[in-house]
Amino acid sequence: MTTALQPNFLLFYVASPVESAAFYARILGREPIEASPGFALFALDSGLKLGLWVRTGVEPAVNGVAQHASGELAFAVPDVAAVQAAHQAWLALGIPMLQAPTQMDFGLTFTAVDPDGHRLRVFTPQGD
After folding, report:
1. pLDDT of residue 126 exceeding 90
2. Is the dihedral of CA 28, 23, 64, 121 positive or negative?
3. Given CB 3.0 to 4.6 Å as the disulfide criterion, which of 35, 42, 84, 91 pairs with 50?
4. What fold characterizes domain 1-69?
5. Percent residues over pLDDT 70 in the chain
6. Cα(54)–Cα(9) distance, rounded to whole angstroms?
7. Cβ-based neighbour number of residue 98 at 10 Å
8. Is 49:9 a contact under the CB 8 Å cutoff?
9. Is the pLDDT assigned to residue 79 strictly greater than 80?
């Protein structure tokens, strides 16, 4: 019987792991557990690890459609007040916003971007 694989890393391809690590250290409230000019790694309380890999060092090389792949890093928070508080805190940090707090079908949310254009969504599920 084959053991099911469980993802435990999220890797973002970035222009500068040093710059991106400084950005994520501010919003995650922790320093990376590994940091070099080519890669930085954060260990999160959930068990997920966030890796920031210099785009030019990725093998096989990122090209074609993979250069334009999209997605989001999502942060579920317990309630509307936490969404509003995170939005205000991120604004104070100067993080660019794509979407102000907005009620959507899944709950209240806002969307920001990191230095490489990766979307960061904070939300509270509907009914919370």
Report:
1. no
2. positive
3. 42
4. 3.30.720
5. 88
6. 16
7. 12
8. yes
9. yes
pLDDT-derived band of residue 66, with 50, 70 and 90 as boundaries? low
First to last CA, the chain: 40
Q: Residue 2 is which amino acid?
A: T
Residue with tokens 């080519």: 38
Q: Decide if pLDDT at 82 tops 70.
A: yes
Rounded mean pLDDT, 110-126: 91
What's domain 71-128's superfamily in CATH? 2,3-Dihydroxybiphenyl 1,2-Dioxygenase, domain 1 (3.10.180.10)
Q: Where are the domains of the chain?
A: 1-69, 71-128
DSSP secondary structure string for all residues of the chain: -PPPP---EEEEEES-HHHHHHHHHHHHTS--SEE-SSEEEEE-TTS-EEEEEEGGG-SSPP-GGGGG---EEEEE-SSHHHHHHHHHHHHHTT--EEEEEEEETTEEEEEEE-TT--EEEEEEETT-
Whole-model pTM over 0.85: no
